[in-house]
Amino acid sequence: MQRNPLPRLLRERAPAKINLTLHILGRREDGWHRLESFVAFSRTGDLLSFVEDQPLALSIEGPTAPAAGNIADNLVLRAARHFAESFPGAKLGAFHLVKRLPVAAGIGGGSSDAAAALRLLARANGVSLDDERLIAAARKTGADVPVCLAARARMMRGLGEELGPLLKLPPLIGLIVNPGAPLETRHVFARMNIPPGGSTAFGGHPELSSGMHVEDLVGALGKGRNDMESAACRLAPIIGDVLAVLSAAPGCRLARMSGSGATCFALFKDCKSAARAKKAILRAHPGWWVKSCVLN
Ligand SMILES: C[C@@](CO)(OP(=O)(O)O)[C@H](O)COP(=O)(O)OP(=O)(O)OC[C@H]1O[C@@H](n2ccc(N)nc2=O)[C@H](O)[C@@H]1O
Ligand SMILES: Nc1ncnc2c1ncn2[C@@H]1O[C@H](COP(=O)(O)OP(=O)(O)O)[C@@H](O)[C@H]1O
């Protein structure tokens, strides 16, 4: 008699997303904001595992699990439901999430978890990551989910659905710092107060390409901005403190907020100065979440 093989256990990392630039171009009549952002990823992140061929389920553990809200509303399950709509009859399964990233932090933890769920479901069902139905499920789950599917540096435009080619970056050595002030994305957009149909008068995005020398890349990034920074600082003034501490650290070349905040990143000239800054920041601000990273 032929026996069913044991269900497989599959694992995916859900890395933190960093908006190295975030230009808000305007607001559509339906209220959504048009943007242009250069996005990269850090290895720091959550971990999602999956046992295939089980009823759809999710369990969560980890230091930031309580902040992630109701399990039924979790973006992992939302992504899985959109996958099931796109692929009727597909194998589902039981997910387990180890949640480490700060929540409502501008680093797309929930979006990255959702994208990791879609990658796991794609692997279990032999679906390609380029499949339009998978990309549609990502879009329906959230604006940042499509860019988190490949989780590699690239430009994103529109609401996040227009993705540029994957870019090969020189090593960008940095720190990411969250001061523990959660900020909901929609509140920060609302605070920007752009009328529906309105455009912003800010300047264009710097040109970025694969294979740029690190000095040129950091120089180009320095000409960019995060247009959500001032609205986020008004809601959570501690962001100004984080940016001041990072900018003053010896060896810091660029300090900026990621996404709608409150997490900020800094790029350093080398690993040594980043490590020194990490130590000093943790000593002065033991409650802050501080991680070393190499962005790609
Ligand atoms: C701002 C960004 C930049 O990468 O990141 P985060 O700060 O959230 O990490 C993203 O655009 C966020 O993407 P994501 O977090 O997936 O947003 P969603 O859940 O789809 O939308 C949350 C809410 O933000 C507003 N929203 C979002 C994206 C956008 N382009 N325009 C908007 O106005 C909408 O009010 C929406 O209801
Ligand atoms: N897996 C998840 N991880 C984090 N937050 C989640 C998750 N699923 C749903 N959420 C909800 O999504 C919202 C945004 O969380 P998150 O993705 O961490 O924000 P951000 O993109 O600003 O870093 C939170 O209010 C949280 O309750």
In summary, what is this structure?
This is 4-diphosphocytidyl-2-C-methyl-D-erythritol kinase. This protein is α+β, with helices and mostly antiparallel strands.
Ligand inventory reads: 4-diphosphocytidyl-2-C-methyl-D-erythritol 2-phosphate, adenosine-5'-diphosphate
The percentage of residues in β strands lies in 25-35%
* Spatial extent as radius of gyration: 19 Å
Here the CATH topology of the largest domain equals: Ribosomal Protein S5, domain 2
Record field, number of beta strands: 11
Query: Would you state the CATH class of the largest domain?
Result: Alpha Beta
Rounded to the nearest angstrom, the distance between the terminal CA atoms is 49 Å
Helical residue percent band = 25-40%
Low-confidence stretches: none
The topology string of helices and strands comes to EEEEHEHHHEEEHHHHEEHE
| Coarse shape | globular
Averaging pLDDT over every residue, what do you get?
96
CATH architecture title of the largest domain:
2-Layer Sandwich
Number of helical elements: 9
Tally of separate domains: 2
The major pleated sheet works out as: 7 strands, mixed
